[in-house]
Amino acid sequence: MSTNKLQKAAAKRNQKSLLLRAEPYLWILPSIILMAIFIVVPIGYVFYMSVSDISKAGRVKGFAGLENFEKVVTSAKFAMVLKNTVIWTIAVVVLSTVLGFILALLLNNNFKGRKVARAIVVFPWATTLVIQASTWKFIIDTDYGALNTLLKSLGIISANVNWTPTPEAFFAWEIACGIFVTIPFVCFTALSGLQSIDESYYEAATVDGANYWQKLFNITLPLVKPSLTVATVLNIIYVFNSFPIVWTITKGDPASRTDTLVTYLYKLAFYNGKQGEAAAVSVIGFMILLVCASVYMVSTLKKGED
Fold this sequence. Notes:
2 domains, 75% helix, two-stranded antiparallel sheet, MetI-like fold, mainly alpha, 306 residues, 12 helices
């Protein structure tokens, strides 16, 4: 075979090899383009707005540097709103994770009506947050709420009780609603991890004389930890950015005492026309989430490797 033919054959093989290496990237290219359009570009534009001087009409008038961040951080309400957000996120994520895992342990057992029980548990998660929050708002209403009506019909109380006498009480009810609608997600994420555990581990532990708690802490928890890690990270993101519950029940009132960062920036942008400051609040929230989620995942993965 001549040299030219050998060179052509080698070039064809190299071209084919290049196409084979590039094929996976070609398949995911549409997803990358969509992510760039609908995720990366909007995030970049929010960062741009946060350092821009923006009019109430939404027109960018020029570069403002860190002025928007300075106005936000020095605001009298920001510290309170940030504190509310931290309390809201930690309370909802921690309690829903604990309760969701306990519920997953119960639903992982074989009992009559297990399918019905699982369907009932998933219902709050399948219902929109606005409907859930509206329902909770109706339940705790002082004048015609379902809670007062039920307790009066049972003879437990003789007159209507004001279940929300203070902003803190209102905020506690919002946290309760957040926990209630988040439990199903944690439950079914943990349940998927529980069902993937091989029964032979428990059989071997039983033979060795291990009791229920030893099996739970030495077999169940380590093997279900990846599922709980995913659920926790996603929960932190979802709960931190949750808008419908707080907005439907209180709209952050009175005087922003029940506001979180999301409802606060919404008011800044659409009530007060301060879109630059709202973008700055959004960037601050984004950075907090990025740091918290990264630290949690890295620390959890390191513990898993150890």
